[in-house]
Amino acid sequence: MSTPSSLSRTDAAATTTNPKFNRRVIGNLLLGLVLIAVPFWLPLVGGYTDLASRVLIYALAAMGLNLLLGFTGGLSFGHAAYFGLGAYGVGLMLKYETHNIFIALLAGTVLGGAAAALLGPIAARRRGIYFSMITIAIGQMFYFIAVRWNSFTGGYDGLTGFSRHPVHLPGLTLPMGSLDFYYMVLICFGLGAWGLWTILNSPLGHTFVAIRENHKRLTFLGIRTQRYIAISFAISGTIAALAGGLDAMYGNFTSPNVLEYTLSGNFLIIAVLGGMRNFWGPLVGAVIFILVRDYVSSITHNWMTVIGLIFVVSVLFFPLGILGSIKDWRALISPRIREQDAP
What we know:
single chain; disordered N terminus
């Protein structure tokens, strides 16, 4: 008779020999190597390191939104609020309290995450368009606070007077230039992605997906779906706040624009463009969005028109997003390949 320990060893062995699992691990490792080597190969194709940092920051924020949108089924138009709170938290800490960028980043992340945890249960009481309208209202509330509290936040002029300071390690000092900051962003991106991946592959993550697929059935089963939506909202807002804190250090500046609903719309475009039900979809969307914005804005001020056209084309011809459509095509082609290869 098999013991539980022998069964667990058998399951682990089956997982490690699963071709799909192996392809996923190899793909993630290759992606990690590409991102680590970005500062070395990106200049060869006309890019620069700060551009890669901005891609990862926006991708991280969109991945946070994607947890709520793509995996839990909640459409938020106000996630810039938590992104902005993270940015203001970092800026205010660096300006008034500390020169330690890690403490400042932690404070900004906690500030945005706490706001999402407190306000998430309010939004979770409603579904559909009412949920979305509540998130807009919350976001605009923080926007007007930042605008009106001029003596503390700088108002329309934004918050200045802070910068990312060098990091002192035993026997080593990192000046936090473009290269050092990129790897700091990459580490934060990796930690955020690992956290989201762990959550989505846990029973909690499976509950989020079940809510997205059939909210009413889970309610009939006695599961308190509002509680789980609020949890997803809090985690999502925390990830967005982490990205916002990095964004404040990216330019050593922040303003009420990072709290406005238009930025929430940009995160939504990034998630949908890359594939909102795919884990790495927001990263693909962020690459397209940032590269197009950087190139087109150097030619014309109407860069949003080009982004809008790309978004319309994507929705019409790639309804699952770029990454989702690629996976869908592979799923259609693979059975045909297997039939041709069969004896």
